[in-house]
Fold this sequence. Notes:
With 148 residues, the chain is of the alpha/beta class. It has helices at residues 10-24, 85-90, 98-109, 126-134, and strands at residues 5-6, 34-42, 53-61, 64-71, 79-84, 113-117, 137-138.
Amino acid sequence: xxxxxxxxxxxxxxxxxxxxxxxxxxxxxxxxxxxxxxxxxxxxxxxxxxxxxxxxxxxxxxxxxxxxxxxxxxxxxxxxxxxxxxxxxxxxxxxxxxxxxxxxxxxxxxxxxxxxxxxxxxxxxxxxxxxxxxxxxxxxxxxxxxxx
Length: 148
């Protein structure tokens, strides 16, 4: 098993790029696809600056994946998922399936998740990528939240 990294760390971004490339390589038609995806996190402990908010950009161009940490406030992509930081952390221990679907639905209903754009044309199996990243991500619980 590969090493685990902290969510949104540089090592995590490398792992995300590796796993996304692996998942993409399983789809033979993906080498002619261009697609950009952003996840931007609100209410993060470190809000960053207007040109580098917490999150990442994943670009797919002709079968190659590139990941960059930090997302501009007004940066656009085919699909932009804006998600509350705590809601994002809640998904880091849940595999794809009914429980994950319920978490996402609740986040949308509570206004903690918003999709701008569309996943139409996304060549990645996002469920497979999510599950692969669960095996490569560890989380640290911030101090002062009442958990001993």
